[in-house]
Structures
1.
Amino acid sequence: MTAVKPVEARCDHCRQTRPLFLYEPDHGHLGASQFSCRWCLREKQPRLCVRCWGAEKQLEENDSAINEDAETMRQICEGNARAIARDDAVRAACDGIAEATRVAEENAS
Ligand SMILES: [Zn+2]
Ligand SMILES: [Zn+2]
């Protein structure tokens, strides 16, 4: 088994020679906030040492614009789920009315 050794080079943040990992942001955007987002505006993601990588991750997780987008996304998904549930309820009610009407007509004849 060959263990892959991370490359040692100068960290883009602290400029110390350490094993480096490419930072890849893990978030999405709704609307225009990506044009002011420090991660999305980067041409190239930095290579960071473990410590700086962790700090960067924290920054990303605590970014209010990203969190707002995530919250809006969550609300949209919840709204959709509610709309689907409502449609199902309406359909079930209509089926019930149709069935009741059919039974009533059968009994009347
Ligand atoms: Zn560093
Ligand atoms: Zn972004």
Note: The mean pLDDT is 92.
2.
Amino acid sequence: MMTAVVLGGTSGIGEALARELAAQGLNVVLAGRDLAELDARARDLEIRYGVRAWSRPFDALDFESHHDWLESCEREIGEEIGGVALCYGVMPSEDEAAVDGSLTRHMIEINYSSAVSILDRVAERLRDRGKGFICAITSVAGDRGRASNFHYGSSKAALSTYLSGLRVQMARDGVSVVDIRPGMIDTKLTYGLPGLMMLAKPRRVARDIVRGIRGNRAVVYTPKIWWLVMFVIRMLPDFIFRRIAL
Ligand SMILES: NC(=O)c1ccc[n+]([C@@H]2O[C@H](COP(=O)([O-])OP(=O)(O)OC[C@H]3O[C@@H](n4cnc5c(N)ncnc54)[C@H](OP(=O)(O)O)[C@@H]3O)[C@@H](O)[C@H]2O)c1
């Protein structure tokens, strides 16, 4: 039975993905900072789905620990990891990010720098085996800089570009790399935000992620309608785009 890691196991999307993976019969490692919470969730997965599940500490900002994180995870649980899904991230408000440089730096470190740091190491290990998957949650916000959230969006665009290059490189080694671009999802991240539209449930996203991994897709917009929405937004000429309050 394959074992998958969910980095950010306490996130709304990460929790739903862990459930979906377990429902499909995969063993799951829930990784994050709140070990008590992750442990409770791991036990729940074992009882509900009859798979094995573990909790492991992971702090995105503890860059030193990334170097042999996967190796020590495999050693501790006694299983080979078949794939890693990166599901953590932060989104400060645009107004705060624009005036508080430390908040923006923190966001970039979590959403982009730490992702590159851990995924480079994961890629190294999976490459040696010639199989497996990497997937990471970026966002439709990375498709085009909008006045309402371009600080956050640019951290996701950077991650998408990284994943695009990694995908090409890893394809030669039999490892798939999937870029998951959700629209607006009903989680802690969006709770109470104004102007939410087409809010989707994390469960829906989780199903699309698993389908994307199984289908070895490059980019997955979820829910699917966001592909069309973002296609139109990307195509708008600048002189029109500037006049629309997005
Ligand atoms: N919700 C949306 O509408 C939406 C749309 C597009 C993309 N996304 C992206 O999808 C991903 C998951 O979003 P979500 O809505 O599910 O998030 P969420 O429920 O708000 O959870 C955020 C997660 O990030 C983790 N985290 C924060 N700092 C961390 C650190 N230093 N080390 C390790 N973990 C850390 C949190 O862990 P703790 O529990 O320890 O704080 C939590 O698990 C994010 O990358 C987000 O940008 C979300």
Note: The beta strands are 3-7, 27-32, 53-57, 81-86, 133-137, 176-182, 219-222.
3.
Amino acid sequence: MPLEEEYIPLSGKGVHAVFFDAGETLVHPVPSFPELFREVCLAHGLEVDMLQVSRVTRGLMAEVEERQREGFTFSDDPEKSRRFWLRFYARLVGELGYRGDDGLAQDLYRIFSDPERYDAYPDAREAVASLRDRGYRLGLISNFEPWLEDLLVRLGLADLFSVLVISGKEGVEKPHPRLFEIALERVGARPEECMHVGDSPNSDYRGAREVGMRAVLLDRWGRHPSFAGERISDLRELLTLLD
Ligand SMILES: [Mg+2]
């Protein structure tokens, strides 16, 4: 039975620690992935339509998620991650009609690996600061390259988190239980005292539920209409959920 069918309505009772995913949950490329992507492509003579970029990217990401369900990993090693993203961008621009050399994929990788190109969602800043003020211990559990830590420092968010658990540093990625267990050990809490929030039904929701944490899917754009578990569309909803 899919885990989300076991969903029991949440109350904040007993939750002491809240963990967050990073990409598309707390932080995003500026101004947005499709806009930044389009800018880099233009510099290489490729004109792309932003809607088409979003559509093709979502299709490729769905394929990656399917492979991840079968055990494929890439964010657990920085070199593996680099190779994965270079291939991903090469395929993405290929599907958008690009026939040039790999310079475009290299540039995309460089731009999207630059902490200066990212910002925090406004609701993320507000929710994280408010939860911290209310006394929750906060942590991060992310499939990301090690430079995520520099990004959080740059955004002034790093100090709000008691623990940062990043796949590229730990050598294991979500939804593997080990990454969640590392977070539990570092925060010193039992799984049932913790909630994890993220935008992936598989890596975040299912991964957290499998170690016994409470889980909430962040579905900012209504991409998962058939998801049956607990869901929010804005991180500030956590404050009500945990009340
Ligand atoms: Mg994410």
Note: Residues 32-116 form a domain with the DNA polymerase; domain 1 fold (CATH 1.10.150).
4.
Amino acid sequence: MTTTSNGVIELTKHREDYLAEHAVSGLKALGFYLHIPFCVRKCNYCDFVSFPGQGQDIIDSYVDRLCGDIGAAGKQYGKDYHVDTFFLGGGTPSLLTPAQLGRVLKAVNEAFLCGCEFAAQCGAGLGKCDGLEVTLESNPGTFDKDKLREYISLGINRLSMGVQSLDDGVLKRLGRIHDSEMALKAMRTAKALDLNYNVDLMLGIPGQTLAIWEDTLKRVLAEEPKHVSFYSLQLEMGTPFYRDFKDGRLTLPEWSENRAMYHRTLEILREAGYKHYEISNAALPGYECKHNLKYWTMQDYLGLGMAAHSFLGGRRCFTTSDLKEYLAGHAVPEWEETDEYSLKTDFVFTELRLIDGFSKQTYQTMFGSDFEDDFAPAYQKLLKEGLMEEQNGFVRLTASGLDQTNPVMEALLNV
Ligand SMILES: C[S@@+](CC[C@H](N)C(=O)[O-])C[C@H]1O[C@@H](n2cnc3c(N)ncnc32)[C@H](O)[C@@H]1O
Ligand code: SF4
């Protein structure tokens, strides 16, 4: 790509052209993320921005502030975009009462046209459009059938549930607020209400053997979730797990055992009819998470609430992680300077998470240059080492590349 004095503008224009091609009725599609930073208790491994044990008054104030931000965003972006995926993440959004959730969703519905690509023609709206994906993240210890029924009536049509494990010893070690029985009950409740649901699981946990993991996965699949996420435990700085590991009080399964769990996961999921479509995600055909796919394919998304990230028109933005600052209304979204290089590496890193990888043609269309040229010689080296491969114009990680994502990404960064 020729870098001119206005290189970034040229790059953004390529991207805008690409997105415009996919827009219907002149409105571009937007993924909408709302961060709900509250949990009953902090789990021993988690460093997501969330605050345990907050009272209803704080949560109410947060919802007030959020609704204000949604209205302001609608004035700024509502004329250009329609919302076609919506994700309430956390923290634990299922801590919201139906009344609080209702206020948030009403604010979005008033500020933005919500619905699939035909929303402009039919008027659609939250709860009325089947093409609109509305996900709420939940903890099994925080809802029952009545609450879920009310959520559904407000427009929630996908539930993501943090089950993590069905082994009570493992759940205790993780510091979860629920046991395996509550997790099973939560899955059955969602199923009884015919709700599309995802189950989050974690592997590579202290004290978890391959047999324990396999038992969890098989029992979860028996409940027929449409989607399964299987995250390998990351030791995050500042968490009790991190401290205990450093002090020698916590032992992780060997890396070979971690990988055995991962490989067995892929076999079991395949046999059960799930498609492995992202490093840590699999779904029954047609049930891939549309919202998360926007992150992995660099589509536009707007994140509101504290500690939320946005990617709009080729630029990234984030908001404060300070609850007091946010509640006081002092949170000013901070826009990051993006340059050609960072957008290209972001594209490659996020799209390589997808099992099908990315099309070299899409890269060319978005950036006006060739992937092989931009990432030579690292790409050729990774091809030779069998960590990446190319097929029908698509570039992707091989099976051994999926086991060694860090070295692959480091090699691509050092071009
Ligand atoms: C925001 S939480 C999900 C919802 C809810 N708060 C819960 O935990 O039940 C998102 C998911 O990230 C995963 N996760 C969190 N911390 C992790 C870590 N350190 N390593 C791997 N996965 C992690 C868990 O599977 C968790 O369910
Ligand atoms: S894993 Fe979920 S419930 Fe546990 S602290 Fe993190 S966000 Fe909260």
Note: The longest strand covers residues 81-90.
